[in-house]
């Protein structure tokens, strides 16, 4: 089967407001994070299926005539056996491989399996709650569907970057959700939706509603690198609500109101001239929610440090995601000078944190012209990640 | 007129929970703070009325036959003129003098004015929101009423310390409130009630309800010495509520629930064996309320430092009173060792703060035997404050 070469990217996600409260039936706002995962799919002729995942040090190759014909594309159980784990937890590399094989076989399994090499690299740290697995699944779904011809290739000759139509995005999203199912078992669907549509999503009681228009906001994303367990943190919040119901219920209501107020402010920023007052409000909402998250017991001294260090530069931060360490976001104002940004990044790095200047609210999955690769980069590990063998020379 | 020599003391007050929220119709808990003001009243024979207030560097003496007969005890307006201010703000010394003269003339004005010397000194910093003026007014009311015979002298020969009966406390409190009226114009009545009854008071919508039984809790009281205006802070909270009503209203509800939960925990501590769980709950309530006060915008970096420094020693703190600087309280557990307490006090002093180890929930106004003076001390200024002339030799 002849397949189309494809280069795609999908963004990570951050929770702007409503983490934890969403577990208790409140609104959360998820936004695309312009640290992206990139996938390059190349048709090959050697009769091999190759997958290169440099971020997680995974480089695999299978003989299509030999190894892969043992597989029944419908049976995830047999895929698990193939990857080498019959039960228990898979490691990141095994899950990524399983997810790839599942989507590959689902898209191409009815015909002759095509010989191709897929390389994926990411600006996103893995396991930091930033939707890196969803960005991976979205890239895989988009690239495989596009390569197979199941969806169009929206890129015109004169474009560097293009997006799919709503209908095709729906298809990408549903397949990406399948990939997330394999990796996470029971995903909320928020991460792959953000990776697919980008911008901002309102998430309430399992319902995901993409917001029509949101401004692009400059931020710093900081990874405190303090490890934590989302499960433990979620149950800590639950315990606190059970212990002090009359105190904690209003806090969740207040977080709900923060999400709704933030949505309103962001919507105003797209319909009227943006003023300092809009940014003041966004900063205040950050501060209030950060205090509420501390009340819920999901703060951490490293996050306090992040808030203090950035506030010393006049910038406002909050944790994003599960808390208890992990990542925080810092809002940058349009007038925040690059000198201030650089000094803040340096201060945060001096605390032992990783820190990226990026944006939220940007586009979801995109197709790129091959030349785009020359401008993309991968900051993980400090350098651009080398692609394996022949990919390296072609880009 | 022959008057009785009297030595009395009254405690300061701290807000345990509900500061600011009380302005918006929520419950606040006020507690007695065992930093006390002491008043020594001595009958003299020289025909002079002397007042010594070493804490505020005020030492005055009037000739009873000359100067004071110009005064009409019913007219505060004329008292103001006498003190030298017809309108505008009085300074601390002027207000204390005015309040003293008002109470003195009210108690003794119907007969011959007695010759006496009143000396008042305090362990409380002034102007720190710790009820030092109320402790002063309560001491004045108790001592003058007792000296005049309007209330009993409850002290038996074998007691070091005694309290008045409920009815006489009511009288002391109502006169102390008059003194507070002169000093503050429109006081809430909470401070003089705490100074009179001690223990803990529930304060809601202008109604003050003394709680029947509360445990004595060890605390550190820290004065960050950051100056602030209560008026500015109260209006800052109001502005924030107006700006984000749906976010702030639940925060006030949560503070209300904190006060009620705290009251419940403290009541349990007097009716069942005290456990670590009781202290854990009190600590959690401190932490949650401190975050809420930050949400209201009345935090301050110095208060953050206080919380961080004490938490490093495993101790939990919150601001008390208006915030924006001012004072904070740190809960000490029964098992907190004196080494930890001393180290914490030193760390706080190293931050430039004043710090006292004391307790909350102790008794209100008390009469003391003269020998009690030997054991009392006044930490203000670091040394025991010297009393003026003949008082010094008699104590």
Number of domains of chain A: 2
Largest sheet of chain A: 9 strands, mixed
Secondary-structure element pattern of chain A, one letter each: EEEEHHEHEHHEEEHHHHEEHEEH
CATH class of the largest domain in chain A: Alpha Beta
Taking Cα atoms only, what radius of gyration of chain A do you get, to the nearest Å?
A: 21 Å
- CATH second-level architecture of the largest domain in chain A: 2-Layer Sandwich
Shape of chain A: globular
- The residue-averaged pLDDT of chain A reads 88
Oligomeric status:
homodimer
The tally of helices of chain A reads 11
Q: Can you tell me the CATH topology of the largest domain in chain A? A: Ribosomal Protein S5, domain 2
Strand content of chain A is 15-25%
Biggest protein-protein contact in the assembly: A-B, 24 and 25 residues
Helical proportion of chain A, percent range? 40-55%
- Low-pLDDT windows of residues of chain A: 375-395
The structure class of chain A reads alpha+beta
Number of strands of chain A: 13
Family (chains A, B): Belongs to the GHMP kinase family. Mevalonate kinase subfamily.
Keywords (chains A, B): ATP-binding, Cholesterol biosynthesis, Cholesterol metabolism, Cytoplasm, Kinase, Lipid biosynthesis, Lipid metabolism, Magnesium, Metal-binding, Nucleotide-binding, Steroid biosynthesis, Steroid metabolism, Sterol biosynthesis, Sterol metabolism, Transferase
GO molecular function, one term (chains A, B): ATP binding
Protein name (chains A, B): Mevalonate kinase
């Amino acid at each position: 089967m002849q397949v189309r070469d494809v280069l795609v990217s999908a963004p990570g996600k951050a929770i702007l407001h409503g983490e934890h409260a969403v577990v208790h039936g409140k609104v959360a706002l998820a936004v695309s994070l312009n640290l992206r995962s990139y996938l390059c799919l190349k048709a090959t002729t050697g009769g091999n299926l190759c997958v290169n995942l440099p971020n997680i040090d995974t480089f695999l190759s299978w003989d299509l005539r030999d190894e892969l014909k043992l597989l029944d594309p419908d049976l995830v159980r047999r895929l698990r056996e193939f990857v080498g784990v019959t039960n228990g937890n898979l490691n990141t590399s095994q899950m990524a491989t399983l997810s790839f094989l599942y989507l590959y076989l689902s898209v191409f399994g009815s015909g002759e399996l095509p010989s191709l090499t897929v390389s994926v690299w990411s600006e996103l740290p893995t396991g930091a709650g930033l939707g890196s697995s969803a960005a991976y699944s979205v890239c895989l779904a988009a690239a495989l569907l596009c390569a197979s011809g199941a969806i169009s290739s929206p890129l015109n000759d004169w474009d560097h970057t293009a997006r799919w139509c709503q209908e095709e995005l729906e298809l990408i999203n549903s397949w990406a959700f399948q990939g997330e199912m394999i990796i996470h078992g029971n995903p909320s669907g928020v991460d792959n939706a953000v990776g697919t549509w980008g911008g901002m999503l309102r998430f309430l009681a399992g319902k995901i509603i993409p917001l029509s228009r949101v401004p692009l906001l400059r931020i710093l994303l900081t990874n405190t690198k303090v490890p934590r367990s989302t499960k433990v943190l979620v149950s800590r919040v639950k315990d606190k609500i059970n212990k002090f119901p009359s105190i904690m219920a209003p806090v969740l209501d207040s977080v709900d109101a923060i999400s709704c107020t933030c949505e309103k402010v962001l919507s105003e920023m797209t319909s009227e001239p943006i003023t300092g007052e809009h940014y003041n409000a966004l900063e205040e909402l950050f501060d209030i929610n950060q205090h509420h998250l501390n009340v819920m017991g999901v703060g951490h001294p490293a996050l306090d440090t992040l808030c203090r260090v950035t506030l010393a530069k006049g910038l406002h931060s909050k944790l994003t995601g599960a808390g208890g360490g992990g990542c925080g976001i810092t809002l940058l104002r349009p007038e925040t000078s690059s000198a201030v940004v650089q000094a803040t990044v340096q201060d945060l790095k001096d605390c032992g944190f990783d820190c990226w200047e990026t944006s939220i609210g940007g586009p979801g999955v995109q197709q790129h012209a091959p030349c785009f690769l020359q401008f993309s980069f991968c900051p993980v590990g400090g350098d651009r990640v080398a692609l394996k063998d022949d990919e390296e020379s072609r880009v």
